[in-house]
Amino acid sequence: MSTPNSSNGHYAPINGLQLYYELHGNGRPLVLLHGGGSTIESTFGRILPVLARTHRVIAVELQAHGHTLDIDRPLSFEQDADDVAALLDHLQIGQADIMGFSNGGTTCLQIAIRHPQLVHKLVPASATFRRDGMPPGFFEGFSHVSLDDMPPLLKEAYLKANPDPKGLQRMFDRDVARMKAFKDIGDAAIKTIQAPVLVLNGDAEVVLAEHALALSRTLPHARLAILPGGHGDYIGEICTPYENNPTPSLVTAMIDSFLNT
Question: What are the boundaries of each domain within the chain?
Fold first, then answer.
């Protein structure tokens, strides 16, 4: 078993997992869900401290990611959504704001669909809900990838949380299999989401800006912000060149304003 990387880290027995989460700050609960192949730190390391100034942040590492070890059961966005719902129940939190980046953004949508009573406001960032939201050939490309193709910074972040190369390979294999099997979330399901939503996306990234626009127009109560840069640049994700880039500070203020009004 890996150990928490700070005094803020905890484990909860959730649906057969020892699910790792961190608590930061005070205020209305805000759940943060990392991207595929990622950890809390690699996705949200730059903006989490700022968000924690005005929120009680619950940052989660989902099945097979970071401190949370894999178990013998399917990995899916729906299962991740159910795990987050069970964690909120474990923490006796009846409703929370929820933000997810990339794969975490898709999980964010599934939480709102499957557990609408838990969601106060939603921030899906670079979230995919249909296969046509990605460039042609994107999903087919997962048939020809190996761990060598994974960004080194993401490998290092995983091994910092859990220094087990077999766990790293397992996470990679799990995420690849999930993306190869990705199925569209139907418009009818998206339209059931009644919470206010702030959709975020980059203008030059793997998730097409047109897809973010389509998501915002399918959701009943959504606003849209398209930011300059690539995948995760606007939140300072670990693989992006964000030194001296003011955009993450701007986006954090935008998120904070949306959640608090």
Answer: 9-259
89-134 pLDDT tens trace? 999 999 999 999 999 999 999 999 999 999 999 999 999 999 999 9
Tallying the residues shown for the chain, one arrives at 261
Tell me whether residue 92 is exposed, middle or buried, using C-beta atoms within 10 angstroms of its C-beta: 0 to 12, 13 to 18, 19 or more: exposed
Separation of alpha carbons 210 and 232, rounded Å? 17
HSE, side-chain direction, 13 A CA sphere, residue 127: 33
pLDDT, tens digit, 9 for 90 and up, residues 141-159: 999 999 999 999 999 999 9
Under DSSP, is residue 13 helix (H, G, I), strand (E, B) or coil? strand
**Under CATH, to which class is 9-259 assigned?**
alpha beta
* 3-class DSSP state of 57: strand
Q: Which tokens go with 243?
A: 């030194």
Beta strands in the chain (DSSP E): 9-14, 17-24, 28-33, 55-61, 96-101, 119-125, 197-202, 222-227
For residue 96, what are the β-bridge partners?
A: 119
Strands across the sheet with 96-101, in order? 9-14, 17-24, 55-61, 28-33, 96-101, 119-125, 197-202, 222-227
**Amino acid letter, 241:** P
**Residue 236, phi then psi, degrees to nearest 5:** 70, 35
Short-list 257, 251, 259, CA closest to 47: 251
DSSP state of 185: P
Nearest residue to 193 (alpha-carbon basis) of 101, 117, 94: 117
